[in-house]
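Fold these two proteins, one after the other.
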Amino acid sequence: MSEQTTNNVEHELQLLEALANEPETTQADLAARVGVAVGTVNWYLKRWSKKGYIKIRRIDRWQWSYLLTPEGVARKTRLASEYVEASLSLYRRTRNEAQRLLSEVRAAGYNQVVIADESEIAEICRLTCMEMGIDIVPTAPTVPVLTIDGTKLTLTWSPSPQAGQAAGQATATAQDHELRTP
């Protein structure tokens, strides 16, 4: 599942959950809760109505009632399952890649790494460091840096006398290994 597809599944699931929790609402309120455009909400509602996932009833000029049908509840359940599966798949792939990169750090004679991010992906990397006994330091000129860009992990090596390189040598190599999102 691509990152765009995962986002669509997440938005659709969030909208269905919002309707299940508060069926009498406005499209603007739904859009604000989920963080999408009102036009996107309108598109989903029309689509779901045609597919029989919701029944729409007007309450007043701007407020509507959107009731999930049994088919809508089944759709919400399927989306929740897909979302959990995609999230666990991303977690496993990120963890495996972090373990591989941190094994390279360990094999090069390091026991510290800098993690240059604060995202959830970085948190997976931090937990992997703890598990592997690698210390995380805020910054150090001679410690490898694990950078996270979306779901891409990059390990950058700094020159280090401890790792067998001459002091003052200005050559650094980066090994890029991209994780594909679900």
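Now the second one:
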Amino acid sequence: MREGSASRSNPDNDSSDERELALINAIARGDRKAFEKLYTSYHGLLTRFLVRTTSRRDLVEDVVNETMWAVWRGATRFRGDSKPRSWIIAIAYRSLMKALRDRSAQYRNASATGIDPDFDELPEPICETANTEMRDWVKHGLALLPDEQRMTLELAYFLGQSCDEIAAIMDCPVGTVKARMFHARVRLRNTLPVLGGDDSIEPRSEFA
């Protein structure tokens, strides 16, 4: 996937953006049914996104609820300067970073032990079972990246956000996003062969 591919116009994406914008406008008027629809639409997506950073079910659920509560309270201030999805993901990202800072020792140690078995209940893509070993291999490689690099890759490749959208979500320049992606890729190229048992690979410098 190319970095700019997510920003290309897509009729289905445009239609989804319009539906979500209509829901947010309805929420701004106090429409609880519209909020329920948006909550249902985003609960699974946010959960799968957040669990890639922390394995604590209680923390993930807290962040999802905090995110959607912020959407309920902030709907009147949303002016459509960004896509609804980017706005909501930005709220989730900031909420997660704050939670990790507040309880860093406890939750970082839990994340290092691997994914909570309870999350095996989450729905997986068709034919994903055959790729379990590869997925776990990549998952462990991502877990070794610094938080900001890992989150940048997750936003780009898991949620399909463009560099401009990631910059808005993470509140940093686009150049910083591209630099984080570059360094993360170099780290993964060095790390994944070792995790797979290939010690013959010569480590590459991030600055090569």
